[in-house]
Amino acid sequence: MKLIGSTTSPYVRKVRIVLAEKKLDYQFVQDNVWGDDTTVTASNPLGKVPCLVMEGGEAVFDSRVIVEYLDTLSPVGKLIPTSGRERAEVKTWEALADGAMDAGILARMEATWVHRSDEQRCQAWIDRQMGKVNAALKAMSQGLGDKPYCSGIHLSLSDIAVGCALGWLEFRYPELAWRTEYPNLGKLMDKLMQRASFADTKPGA
């Protein structure tokens, strides 16, 4: 398998962590989707990463679809329950974490995209998106409570998705004091960073 992605993308990191936790072999091909020389569109017409290319050339995207598929490839470290409320809970955690990243990226693009002038940038839009980020952080903290992991006592996709969101926010928005406001999230992140799958995929590394 070949994974096309970027080391700064939190969605790509989510897939890389799942691949590591599932002990699956793959080739990592870096691609800058904003560069003129991007090649991901040959596999994903949406021009987005991550994109998983199979041995036969078939492509799988986006990150939620990829991790769902990867979890079926090996019995090692089952990350997504097969059915029922437990499965819905894990997928909801993933949706919450991905939504926080979606909003954070939209705010960042509005503030930094080089093809938009300062006069064209909308602070109200940025504030709206960051409001979603802050609401998601509060919901994550409340949902985690004093549990060792987001969905019980074992690592699951819930924790991987949340860890990727927190790691990206720490990377792109260091001014956000979420560790101070939500110490249980900081404790979870510190625990996750002790795993090789997280330590080896720090944003930009």
UniProtKB/TrEMBL annotation:
Ranges where the GST C-terminal domain occurs: 83-205
Residue ranges of every copy of the GST N-terminal domain listed in the record: 1-78
Record's GO cellular component terms: cytoplasm
UniProtKB keywords: Transferase
Domain of life (superkingdom): Bacteria
InterPro entries noted in UniProt: Glutathione-S-Trfase_C-like (IPR010987), Glutathione-S-Trfase_C_sf (IPR036282), Glutathione_S-Trfase (IPR040079), Glutathione_S-Trfase_N (IPR004045), GST_Omega/HSP26 (IPR050983), Thioredoxin-like_sf (IPR036249)
GO terms assigned for molecular function: transferase activity
Name of this protein: Glutathione S-transferase
Organism phylogeny: Bacteria, Pseudomonadati, Pseudomonadota, Betaproteobacteria, Burkholderiales
